[in-house]
Amino acid sequence: MIARTLDHSAPGTKPAYALPRRRRRAMPGFGLTLGITLGYLGLLVLLPLTTLAVKASGIGWEGFTRVLGSPRVWAALRLSFGTALIAAFIAAALGALLAGALTRYDFPGRRFADALVDLPFALPTAVAGIALTTLYAPNGWLGRPLLALGVKVAYTPLGITLALVFIGLPFVVRTLEPVLRDAAREAEEAAATLGAGRWTILRRVVFPPLRPALLTGCALAFARGVGEYGSVVFIAGNLPGVSEIAPLLIIIRLEEYDYRGASVIAMAMLVVSFGLLIAINALQARMQRLATGEGKRS
After folding, report:
1. Residue 167 belongs to some domain of the structure
2. Is residue 4 part of a domain?
3. Is residue 13 part of a domain?
4. What are phi and psi of 229, to 5 degrees?
5. β-sheet bridge partners, residue 18
6. What is the pLDDT along the chain (298 residues), one digit of tens a residue?
7. How much is the pTM?
8. CA angle, 245 as apex, 239 and 246 as ends, to 5°?
9. Rg (Cα) of the chain, in Å, rounded?
């Protein structure tokens, strides 16, 4: 909007018009922020991934199919992605219940329980792996009674899934907590006043706004679980074709000086993980659009 200014130094002066001053912003300019963003993405993300792709392509298509067609490699990839996906769904279910309890209820020890959620973030992964192995080993505190019931946890895919749930649970909880705190409880109270049951309120009122955040937490838990090494390698047992994960197989190939084989396995994990994350992000955006449309209609 053009500002109108008067010069009072000379009588009878006609009003003059001047352009408004450019508003100064606290944030840096667009050029600086864009340059930093592109520099970060180029040097720390794209360059290492490009180097990996170039290294893997040097083996040729025949060598690429030979490495990925190995039963040992295929079993390790299937185990890593399968257990990570199952653990992400379990973490999503448990994380939703835990986040709801921490945000909606006040009970003794709530602050301590809330602090324990972040423990896998601060705990070294090797320490977590040793602790889980000690607990669920055949002679461990929980492993021995479970083995008596015919359930073996350590050195099996079940133990890997348990370790990945332990690692991925905080991602789900911390993603859902802000959404649950900001959610308006008036709608829940109104639905209860109108005679809706608890399951109906949970399904129709509480759950729809949580879907994008729940999917985000599930995606983060899955992404962390696919590449997890320290907390899994101890409890897995590392039996080829049974409990050997893909990150461990990459380490074994590197120790054998098979750098191209390790690059091929890593590239396969990168492509599959990136494709799944793109699909999850697209589904999340679709859910947000649907939630926004429902909110406008209501």
Report:
1. yes
2. no
3. no
4. -130, -55
5. 3
6. 444 444 454 555 555 555 556 566 656 666 777 778 888 777 777 777 787 778 777 777 887 788 888 899 999 999 999 999 999 999 999 999 999 889 888 888 888 988 889 888 888 888 988 999 999 999 989 999 999 999 999 999 999 999 999 999 999 999 999 888 877 677 777 777 877 777 887 777 778 778 888 988 998 899 899 988 888 999 988 888 888 999 999 999 989 888 888 888 988 888 888 888 888 878 777 777 776 665 555 5
7. 0.79
8. 130
9. 27
**Is 133 part of any domain?**
yes
Q: Could you list the residue range(s) of the whole structural domain that residue 170 is in?
A: 61-297
* Number of domains forming the structure of the chain: 1
Question: CB of 225 within 8 A of CB of 273?
Answer: no
Rounded Cα gap, residues 149 and 243, in angstroms: 21
Q: Which residues contact 141 (CB under 8 A, 6 or more apart)?
A: 135
Q: What is the CATH number of the domain that holds 76?
A: 1.10.3720.10
